[in-house]
Amino acid sequence: MTALSPPLIESREAALAAAAGFAQRIADGVIERDRTGALPVAELADFDASGLLAITVPVAYGGGELSPVVLAEVIRTIAAVDPAIAQASQGHYLFVDVLRAFGSPEQKHRLFTEALAGHRIANALAERGSGHAQDLKTRLLGWGAAGASAGVSPRLEGRKYYATGALTATWIAVSALDDDGRLALAFVRRDASGVTLDHDWDTMGQRATVSGGVLLDDVEVEPDLAMHYADCFEVPQQLGARAQLVHTAIQVGIAGGALADAQLYVSTKARPFFEAARAGWGEHAVEDPHTIHRIGEMATRVAAAEALLRDAATTLEQVGLVPADADGGARGSIAVARAKAFASEVAVSVASDLFSLTGASAADRRYDLDRHWRNARTHASHDPVDWKYHHIGAYMLSGTLPPNHGQL
Questions:
Q1: What is the tens place of the pLDDT at every residue in 133-181?
Q2: Phi and psi dihedrals of 10, rounded to 5?
Q3: CATH T-level topology, domain 235-398
Q4: pTM of the complete model beyond 0.85
Q5: Which residues, including other chains, have CB under 8 Å from residue 363's CB and lie 6 or more apart?
Q6: CB-CB neighbours of 69 under 10 Å
Q7: 175: which strand partners?
Q8: Cβ-contact 122, 169 below 8 angstroms
Q9: Could you say which architecture CATH assigns to the domain 12-232?
Q10: Which conformational region is residue 65 in: left (phi greater than 0), alpha (psi within -120 to 50 degrees), or beta?
């Protein structure tokens, strides 16, 4: 029996409906996935078959070519239910953007066809034990300024970590230094000879991302599937900003999910604090004026985070994936930095404050309400908020452009 192809999603309405439907299907298992940290094979297979992988693929290659505004809302919708599942697709959308802007016609045809068929691309970018996150030890041997030598296939050697989604993806995009010491990128199949993936991911939050390591031992790379990645960052571009938009949507989703659980628990399970009952402020938790005030405050902060997310996505849509100049690129990066910094703080605070409203019973492990804080804190730890505010301030005070290395 031949598997059905994923549906083609060509409109905002269809994309949001697909995201909402998928989020509903995975909702019942979120607590168990958080507790076990098990690999969500079935859930990610469902996502890959949903058609959402191709929503940013260009129309010329058969995709939906939907805007960053739609993508942000899709990710936020899923992350409000399970941010770990939402994060598994982040690398895919990044590399669709890389290919759109800088890929060769052959690379676009090959990998966009794969995305349309429901074959996800994961990342293998980060490494451990080096001086900093971009100090790479992984090498793409046999690849240099002129590409690969005739009749010779480049080879990957190294070890990666934080390879979110790699264990269930079809393709893995691997960053490495080439023979000239410049940044390169190679796409290899997950099941390629010499690729070994592990489950060495034991964290307090975002557990179902299973973002373990990738060992690359003399992995052959098709010459047509390697590219000079450094070239992408020598011109104005929004690769980093658009990748960070997805991370922002994850944090906004976490905040919204925590708020929804706080509202539900206070409305259906929480007892009024004895001070409120003694003061005659009602027999139910929802009548406590302090609870009413705090819920209103939390809801306002979440709404503000959602508004900043929409603003950032709209700015990226206006600027374009490859802006006309550095100023355009800065506008997009700064808009996303504002949204990301604020959303990271709101997600952590709302996920913590919900316990001040729900009472001690909400700490019962059966409810797993602490997952919201653990997810928010774990996710935010990869990307320091202070540097976001630094770049925003420097841009405002002196017009200093944010760095163009794709990480802001």
A1: 567 999 999 999 988 887 889 999 999 999 999 999 999 999 999 999 9
A2: -120, 0
A3: Butyryl-CoA Dehydrogenase, subunit A; domain 3 (1.20.140)
A4: yes
A5: 355, 369, 370
A6: 19
A7: 185
A8: yes
A9: Beta Barrel (2.40)
A10: left
Nearest one of 70, 15, 69, 94 to 47, comparing CA atoms = 15
Token representation of residue 384: 């320091």
Nearest CA to 145 among 222, 228, 226, 224? 228
Query: In DSSP terms, which residues pair with 197 in a beta bridge?
Result: 214
Local structure of 218: helix, strand or coil: strand
- Using CA atoms, how far apart are residues 319 and 334, in angstroms rounded to an integer? 12
Distance CA 78, CA 86 (A): 6
Cα radius of gyration (the chain): 22
Task: Please tell me whether residue 155 adopts helix, strand or coil conformation.
Answer: strand
Q: How far is CA 289 from CA 262, 282, 296, 357, in A?
A: 16, 10, 10, 11
Domain ranges for the chain: 12-232, 235-398
Amino acid symbol at 375: N
**Those residues with Cβ within 8 angstroms of residue 268's Cβ, 6 or more apart along the chain or in another chain:** none
* Residue written as token pair 């800065």: 330
Is the pLDDT at 104 greater than 90? The verdict is yes
Which residue in this structure is represented by tokens 């492990």?
365
Structure tokens given for 32 = 């168990």
Q: How confident is the model at residue 408 (pLDDT cuts 50, 70, 90)?
A: very low
Neighbouring residues of 248: CB distance < 8 A, sequence distance ≥ 6: 72, 309, 312, 336, 339, 340, 343
